[in-house]
Amino acid sequence: MKKGKKLYEGKAKIIYATQDKDLVIQYFKDDATAFNNQKKSTIEGKGVLNNRISEHILSNLSQIGIKNHLVKRLNMREQIIKLVEIIPIEFIVRNVATGSLTKRLGIEDGTVLKEPLIEYCLKDDNLGDPLIAEEHIYAFEWANKKEIEKIKKMILRINDFMIGMFRGIGIKLIDFKLEFGRIKSDGKDEIILADEISPDTCRLWDSVTDKKLDKDRFRKDLGDLIPAYTEVAKRLGILHEQSNVSAVNVTKLSSVKKKSK
């Protein structure tokens, strides 16, 4: 499929047009950002790993009936995906209290939640992706009640599946971010899962040691981000196509460190 003009560039991905108006190419960058883009770096090989891990997870979710934007992976860094109208909400799913939740509410880090907690953030970098209530979504018509109810059901199904998938390879799914969008189906809007699911968008801890295998290694200057992402890919059994990734050197961090929100 021929790559056309650039339609959008985000912090971690670039979207390109194709000759099919309903399909686009998603390119995974090596850029690493944290704290609403206040901390930045380039980490060679990150995009390759996220592309492969996200493809694996989304493909498995398709098999259990979770419709998503993935069509197929093109190469080491690119996927063909459906062009969706993104709902401007980040859905944060928490199984264990950590990160901003513990800071906001004074909850002890690592507290296991009795049931999954779903939080909503407005998807707006300029505003710092502020936490919002469900009532805000309806008041400003970012989505309607029927759409949100469907999304919440999908989220719980996704969470159940991913908890089991990661538990089977010795990893705890602490929390993760999801995005959803609309596509036209038989003339009507249909809600599907969009964006990526990868160590960039999930908190993943080793089940025995609680070692962090996600982007917190960048956020908290723990180092060894590529080895951590590589470990996730290895455990998922999907690294055979890029066995050389583990040897990629992490470039020097030229980060500007500032306080998180």
Short description:
With 261 residues, this protein is α+β, with helices and mostly antiparallel strands.
Secondary structure topology:
Blueprint: E1 6-9, E2 13-17, E3 23-28, E4 31-34, E5 39-42, H1 46-63, E6 70-73, E7 78-82, E8 85-86, E9 89-96, H2 100-105, E10 112-122, E11 131-132, H3 134-139, H4 145-167, E12 171-185, E13 188-194, E14 202-206, H5 216-219, H6 225-236
Antiparallel strand pairs: 1-2, 2-3, 3-7, 4-5, 6-7, 8-12, 9-10, 9-12, 10-11, 12-13, 12-14
Helix pairs in contact: 1-6
Verbal overview:
The protein is α+β, with helices and mostly antiparallel strands and 261 residues long. It has two domains: 6-84 and 225-246, Phosphorylase Kinase, domain 1; 87-206, ATP-grasp fold, B domain (D-amino Acid Aminotransferase, Chain A, domain 1). 26% of the residues lie in helices and 31% in strands. The protein has helices at 46-63, 100-105, 134-139, 145-167, 216-219, 225-236, and strands at 6-9, 13-17, 23-28, 31-34, 39-42, 70-73, 78-82, 85-86, 89-96, 112-122, 131-132, 171-185, 188-194, 202-206. The strands form three sheets. Strands 8, 9, 10, 11, 12, 13 and 14 form a seven-stranded antiparallel sheet that branches. The protein has a five-stranded antiparallel sheet with strand order 1-2-3-7-6. Helix 1 packs parallel to helix 6. The longest helix is centred in the middle third of the chain and has 23 residues, at 145-167. It is globular and about 50 Å long.
